[in-house]
Structure formats: C-alpha cells, structure tokens
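Anyone? Bumping this.
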Amino acid sequence: MLSVRAVSKSYGKSTVLDSATFELQPGEVLATVGSNGAGKSTLIKAVIGLIRFDGDVSVDGIDVRRHGREARARIGYLPQNPAFHTDLNVRETVTFFAQLRGAAASAARSAVEAVGLAEHAEKQVRALSGGMRQRLALAIAQLGDPPLLMLDEPATGLDVAARLELREFIRDQRARGKAILLSTHWLDDVPSIADRVIVLDQGRTTFHGPAAAFATRAVARSLLYVRLNGHSGEAIPLIQATGGDVTRSGDWLAITCPANNKAHVMETLLGAGITILDFRVEEAAAPSAPGPLPGGTQ
Amino acid sequence: MTAVRSILGKELRDAVRSRWLLAFAATFALIALALAVVQEQGDVGAQGFNRTTASLINLCLMLVPLLALILGAGAIAGERDRGTLATLLAQPLSATQLLIGKYVGLTIAVWMAIALGFGMAGVLLALVRPVADFGHYLLFIVLSSALASAMLSIGMVISVLSDGRAKALAIAVLAWFALVLFYDLAAIGLALSVTSSGQSLLLTALLNPVESVRILAILSLEPDLHVLGPMGAYLHLELGTLRSVVLLTGAVFAWAVAPLAVGAMLFRRQDV
C-alpha cells in the first residue's frame, strides 16, 4: 500500500529527515514516534507530497512526486492542527472537501454522521471546540474511503474519552483493511494501536520494529513543572534522589522523570514539608532512542 | 476540473458572503453617478456618456488595480496564514489547480463587481442622457475588467511569494504605487530626459498593464493616434490604429497570463 524508500529532507545544511525507509501493508498500523522536531510530521508531509524530498514514495504503486493528485486521492490526512475556513459551517466544509475529492454529497453527510457531528452540521466551524474540529478533520480524512490514512499527532488536545474513541476508530479502520500511518509522541497510545513502530530522533530512524518489542523497552517519561514556596534549593537534591532530572525556570522547576514515578516525586516533596503552590504535567514524550530491542532494526 | 470548479465556486461564494463584491459594486456605481452629476452641473451637451467615461478612466485606472492587487495578494497567503493551505493541498488537487481556481474565481467576482457597479450607473444615466455613446462606456467596462485580470495575476504571484497575508498586502500596495503612481512619473521623466523616442515610450506602455489599458481607453474615445504624442506618431507610422489596439490588447492579455504561469511554477516548487 505504502512504500517509502530512503526519504530524506534537508533545509540548508540541517537534515530533518534522514533516509527513512519502510513499507506499510493494508490492515496495518505503523506509528512514528519521537519528540518534537524528530521528523514525524516531515515524514507524513513527504508521503502526501506537501514538501519536496529526496528518495521515493509510492502509494498503491503510484509515485507521489510524479502523480501527486492520483496518490492523494488514496490518502486521508488528519493534520496535527486541523485548520478550516471558519466562515463555513460543518456541512459546507465537508461538502466542499467532498467535492475536492470527487465524493458524492451523500458521502459528505455520512462522514458527518459517522464522527458524531450530525447535530452540529449547521454550526460555524469557528464555533467548534478543539475536539469537534478534530472530529471534523477525521470526517474529511475519510471522504472517498481512502485505503491509506495519515494521522499526524491525532491525540493532541483530546481528553481521555476522546482519546479512547480515537483508539477505537483506529482499530475499526484497521479491521476494515485500511493502512494507517500515525505520528505520536505519547508512548502510552502506541502498544494498544500500532503493529509496528518507527522511532525518529533528529530525522534518523533509531528503531524500526514490532510495537510489542518497542513497548517492553521504551520507558515513558513525564515532564513535571512545580512552583514551590521558596524551597527550590532544598527540593532539587530530593528530586534528584528520586531519579528525576531538574532544571530551574524562573519560579518553576522542570522535572523530567519516568512517567510511573511522577507521583513519587510529588510525595517526596510534600513529605519533606515543601509547599507546592502550583504544578503542571506534560504527558510522556517518546525517548529519543529506546535502546537495543530484540527483533528491531537499530 | 471538478477540483478547480470547487475552488472557483468557493471564491465566488466568499466574495458574495463577505460582501466586498457588493461594496465595490456600490462604490463603482456611486463614483460613476457622482462624476456624471458633477459634469451635469457644469456643461453637458450631447457628449454625456463620453465625458463620464473620460472622467472615469483615470479614477478606475487607480481603483481597479488596487482592488485586484489586494485580492490577488490575499489569495494564497491568506490560506497560508489560516493554516488551511496544507489541508487543501493534501487533497487530490495540484498547486496549479488551486492557483487557477482561485484566480478564475476572483476574476469573475471582480468582473461582477465592475459590471454590476458601472452597469447599474450606466442604466441610470441612460435614462437621462443620450445613449449614442453608450458603446464607449461598455468598452470602458470591458477594459476595466481586463485590467483587473492582469492585476489579479500580478497579485497572485505576490501571494505565492509571501509567507503571510500582511506581508503580501504590503507588497501589493507597494506594487500599486510603483505601477499606478510612480510609473507615470518615471515615463514622463524618461520622455523629458532622453530623446522621447516613440518606440521606447511604446515599450514603456507595454511593460505596464495600467498604461496599456490607459492608452486603449484613450483610443476608444479618440481613435486618432496623434493624441498620444510621440508614441502615437510612432504607432501611426509603424502599425496603424488596428494593429496598435491588437498589440496593446495582447500586452494586457500577456499580463493576465504570464504572472499567473510564473506563480504556478513557483508555487509547485514550494514546501507547504
């Protein structure tokens, strides 16, 4: 379904994607994992033909560079930050994209219903919440029933319920024989939805192998921000003793620690009588490289 | 073609919804009527429509390019600003198709604004004026539309080359100053400072669609080429009126096509 061979992308002397190579078959989910700037979105944009690149990409045997339109007719794309013409309503937006994809008006209506936006069909896009926009983008990605879905950070900005729905959606699409390439920097989604994983680090593929093998070795990490009541000097060695890395940022301490250890960090601080004025947790970002993996390509 | 039609249709819908089409149509109508009324109070005579047309030419040679450049400049840069460009180009749609769809849609919208505005004013004037010169007035509407097409094409290139709407609009306004205001002064300067060869003045006119349309508009009112001075004498001697009109019309057509073609070539090579 999708063949990516030695795809590279550079901006000047900076290489943002270095010789990415993989195949994706129908009914298979491939997750590209990496921190921000690792090259995940660049890879997806190259596959869609939104950027120029070195190497070869073909969808269903169609060369993306030479026959971009034909290839894109087989791709449903969910962008990282879905953006639409905000003066249109939901129905008009989906109808417009259905026309662009050569899909029937009835397909537009079905797509709106499928993502649960039927009762919001006449609502202006500018009035939609982030989650609803994500649904709208999913509706558009499914127009014309493309055999390949490209989901760029689909879980970003979704609450827990919506993320569960998204997992269900991906499973359903896989069961229908769709090939799915998704990018994410949240590790906890990967084992439950992906068959294979590619880890990107500064554009280079540092791991390519089965999701199960990836999950056993990859350690999810959290970024924890805490604002303390003037006890930063006392707190830093305590945090380091729990295995966390600490950096100061104004009144805040930024703590990077294993995701399953963040509660322990908080307990340690509270146990030492340190008052936490405020805190924020960013969920687990993918490690740059999960270390040697059995059955994987390093 | 379906994709181009969809983009074209959306541009037209946007023009109607945002009401700029009606606003400009009303502005054009008011300007035409106001000029007619002012002349009515001075001296009218039988040359009603011709006088109105002559007065409108200079005003429209300023207004229409500004409108078209700004609309063209916002076409792609606006999508880029909103983040919708990637969503559009991720569809089975080429960059060239998107550009052409937008260009044709905007061109039709501007033509509609011109035709509606000056058309309504023309009908009202025809009720109180002799209609013998109405043909010149219609020709003026056609020339304004042709000028709009050329300037929209230039605006589209500006849009392709700009990374944001604000930058595109700033460059469009600069282009307007250069083509509409400074170009005239530069041409006069050229004529005064060097030997005002008819050939060089003709070249100067061909290199700017505003000047080409200005000369075509003057010729539509006064077919005697000598009213154009040294350039007119050159045209009379070398080409004659008909060939001159064809040459100038060809130049305007080239301005409507060439920048768009360059824009499409550049757009295809850009990363989104």
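Late reply, but here is one note on the structure posted above: The interface with chain A takes residues 2-3, 5-7, 9-10, 14, 17-18, 82-84, 86-94, 97, 269, 271-272 of chain B (CB under 8 Å).
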